[in-house]
Amino acid sequence: MARFLKGIHGAYSGKVGSVIGSSWRGVDYVRSLSKITNKKASEGQVAQRTKFATAVAFLSPIKDLLNLGYSDKLQGKATGYNKALQYLLNYGGVTGTYPALEIDYGKVVISKGSLANLMGAEWSEAFPQEIMLTWEPELNKFNAFAGDSVILLMYNSNKNFFSILESATREEASLSFKLPASYSGDTLEGWVFTGHEDGVKTSPSFYLGKLSIS
Predict the structure, then answer these.
(1) What is the DSSP string of the chain?
(2) What burial class does residue 65 get, using C-beta atoms within 10 Å of its C-beta: 0-12 exposed, 13-18 middle, 19+ buried?
(3) Beta strands 119-127 and 27-32, pairing class
């Protein structure tokens, strides 16, 4: 693929001979046509594609949250979603042997940034289907502010369903909420991070672990 400068008639798009002109995120480029092949993919290639598809299927529903979570660590034109996907694939976030692949939830990173995360964060089922998240309200004037939002991401692995809560601040030291009755017997995976009121700065995320609901 090659970038090019606009001529007097501007950039072009579409197929011309053996090349295609196009534009992505404001960058004009040309690339050669893909070669058609009847060669069957090797087992390794299929395994790699399945690994990629597994990571994409898991992260796609929370694309907007990932774009927020990586908002103060974007590099070039990469989105937060792409950074999270790259991290998951490069650092062992998809485990197992093809075709039995699964997500290692402890290696999922949903945010990176310069804010401090919550000190001593942990969650538990305080009462049947009532979740309590607690932390130490440690504050400073550099990267831990009283009004920082606490953002909790939960994944119900039984129902393949994500939930996001953002109803507490760093200084409040706790967050409690009631789960739907349909969650009884299910397992939750949780992550937490903080977000500054400027809507840009975030903290690295912290994996809270697995929680079995009664």
Answers:
(1) -EE---BTTB---EEETTEEEEEETTEEEEEEPPPP--PPPPHHHHHHHHHHHHHHHHHGGGHHHHHHHTTTS--TT--HHHHHHHHHHHTT-EEEETTEEEE-GGG------SS---EEEEEEEEETTEEEEEEE---BTTTB-TTPEEEEEEEETTTTEEEEEEEEEGGG-EEEEEPPGGGTT-EEEEEEEEE-TTSS-BPPPEEEEEEE--
(2) buried
(3) unpaired
Q: What is the pLDDT along the chain (214 residues), one digit of tens a residue?
A: 444 444 444 454 555 555 565 555 555 555 555 566 667 888 889 999 999 999 999 999 999 999 999 988 665 678 999 999 999 999 999 999 999 999 999 999 999 999 999 999 999 999 999 999 999 999 999 999 999 999 999 999 999 999 999 999 999 999 999 999 999 999 999 999 999 998 889 999 999 999 999 9
107 in Cβ contact with 58 (< 8 Å) = no
The CB density around residue 205, as the number of other CB atoms within 10 Å, is 23
What are 176-193's pLDDT values in tens digits? 999 999 999 999 999 999
The first and second tokens of residue 156, run together, are 């119900």
* Amino acid occupying residue 157: S
Cα distance between residue 55 and residue 176, in whole Å: 30
Nearest-angstrom CA–CA distance, 82 and 67: 9
